[in-house]
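Input record (Table S2, row 256):
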Amino acid sequence: MRTEPAETPGRAATETPLAARAVRARKVYGEGDTAVVALDDVSLDLPSGEFTAIMGPSGSGKSTLMHCLAGLDTLTAGQVLVREIDLATLSDRERTILRRDRLGFVFQSFNLLPTLTAEENITLPADLAGRAPDPEWQRTVVAKLDLGARLCHRPSELSGGQQQRVAVARALISRPEVVFADEPTGALDQKAGTELLRFLRSVVDELGQTVLMVTHDPGAAAYADRVVFLVDGAIVEELAAPTRGAILDVMSRLGA
Ligand SMILES: Nc1ncnc2c1ncn2[C@@H]1O[C@H](COP(=O)(O)OP(=O)(O)OP(=O)(O)O)[C@@H](O)[C@H]1O
Ligand SMILES: [Mg+2]
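Output record (magnesium ion complex):
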């Protein structure tokens, strides 16, 4: 069941509901001498219908933050809330169901199942939830991602870019509350990457989808409404309405 509130005309911008947020999130891997502080007191709001990019050097905690926001990993301290539900108050099973029904993922590695066709991979989350995806939406996603001719192929028969597009289609098929994408354009050439970013932009603009994307590419981050910069597990800077030039300036200032 979706609990998305109906759009109220004239609603003040300050009342934009939050799709998800992290509150004073801290994540420590390991213990004692080998402990690594991956997140150090990170607070981040993800307003509904906004496209947020996370940037920062390798090892700065981007994937950790995304995994914790998505309920794939747990915090050492602090909170993650999805639609104001504190993930720590859920049982493992409830968290799994929330992930399956309300969140979408595109991982750094595509995580496609090798024995399934492209189409079966795309519809897998919906199949697991016992719900057929909306056929018109499925056609839109497949057409936008140019996968129509590839639906019967298995991942090993697809190029890296095609596999990535299958992973994006799978993430979008249930129209989740938030789509989390970890370097979705990393394995794509310029043209395929640009198409994917335009598609993500259009699902935000036209469908009110909330997207959180990790990227190293300032050109990719410029598609977002906002860029958040992480260094050593802490948010050090934020840019609204980012341009590639403004992002490059921050990156050089941060030595990233
Ligand atoms: N499972 C783990 N066990 C121990 N340390 C980990 C684990 N996962 C991540 N780390 C450490 O936490 C820190 C943050 O890692 P994370 O993967 O979030 O970085 P990142 O910003 O996504 O980097 P990249 O750009 O290379 O993907 C790193 O120092 C990393 O080595
Ligand atoms: Mg990462």
